[in-house]
Amino acid sequence: MLTSGATLAMARKFSASGFWRDIRASGATAFVYIGELCRYLLNQPPGPHDRDHRVRVVIGNGLRPEIWDEFQQRFGIAHICEFYGSSEGNLVFINAFGLPRTAGFTPLPYAIVAFDTANERPVRDARGFMRRVAVGEAGLLITEVDAGHPFDGYTDAEATEAKLLHDVFKKGDVWINSGDLVRSQGLRHIAFVDRVGDTFRWKGENVATTEVERAIGAVKGVAQASVYGVAVAHSDGRAGMAAVVLHPGAAFDGRAMAQDLCRALPVYAVPIFVRIIKAQETTGTFKLRKVELKQQGFDPAFIDEPLFVLLDRDHGYQPLTRAIHRRILAGTVRW
Q1: Which class does domain 1-77 fall in?
Q2: Which end of the chain is more exposed for a tag (fewer CB within 10 A), N or C?
């Protein structure tokens, strides 16, 4: 910026309602986004000044595919430059070609390998090596470490070693474990799928929370959704649960939501439980916080907010009462 003679404007804090006013006041032609920031802007009521700005490009990471087109069209953004990277990593993907719904391209060495979600580790074959996934498949993103692409690591030697994978494709090679599941889009492009630990296994299948969140976000009346897995007595894996924020004035329609999700998702990916919350907790970088939600589970005795359960797909989501909760704990409810 300094060498190009550009100006940087910074607001004291983020405000979804005042964001475009600040953009117009500064005359900005670009801005940086992160996490759920774009969704917060999109959730604001449409207005006549949505395109009254000079912004021609935005750059950042975390723009969800399900809102990409709507965000770009509503606010008239010519170029969305999504990227993927980390401060300690040795590569970055960037949407240099302006393609929709992608974290971008990199010329640097990487691989996407098969991943065991249940045990949270890469899959190794009989020889002890990992396997690359095909285009369109999701897997663990790893990046090669060599003289041209070093990994400086952390101040903690144990943390540095824990980040590395050895003997990945051949004896002696070393790769960085990104901790992220991505989908190969071909032509060296990727799409972010989930953070390792967020994806869970149910009915013998891997459930990517971002894909379920995308489907729920398309349901009428839903402003935002956070999906996670919860342990259920007498069941293998984790059942899907969604914490849902509704648009102001919208009412939860359990039957309509069940119908929409059953059409949009595989049977195993449809959430069993729904919790209606007032707002989503986010981190300092506008990423959804799920740790507390996972810990709280689905016990109506300890959760004051409305809880629903899917016992019958034709009937839809119904209130999760303490009596139903006792039946679930006793193992008399089967999905």
Answers
A1: alpha beta
A2: N
Amino acid letter, residue 277: I
Mean pLDDT, the chain, integer? 93
- Pairwise CA distance, residues 194 & 196, whole Å: 6
- Residue 102 is predicted with a pLDDT of 96
How far apart are alpha carbons 195 and 115 in whole angstroms? Answer: 12
Secondary element (H or E) of residue 144: strand 138-144
Statement: residue 64 has pLDDT above 90? no
Could you tell me which residue, 75 or 40, shows the higher pLDDT?
Answer: 75
Instruction: Assess contact for 42 and 17: CB atoms under 8 A.
Output: no
Q: Which amino acid is at 73?
A: Q
> Can you name the CATH fold of 105-195?
Luciferase; domain 3 (2.30.38)
Q: Annotate 73-125 with DSSP letters as a single string.
A: HHHT-SEEEEEEE-TT-S-EEE-TT--SS--EE--S-EEEE-EETTTTEE-B-
Threshold 0.90, pTM exceeds: no
Domain ranges of the chain: 1-77, 105-195, 200-330
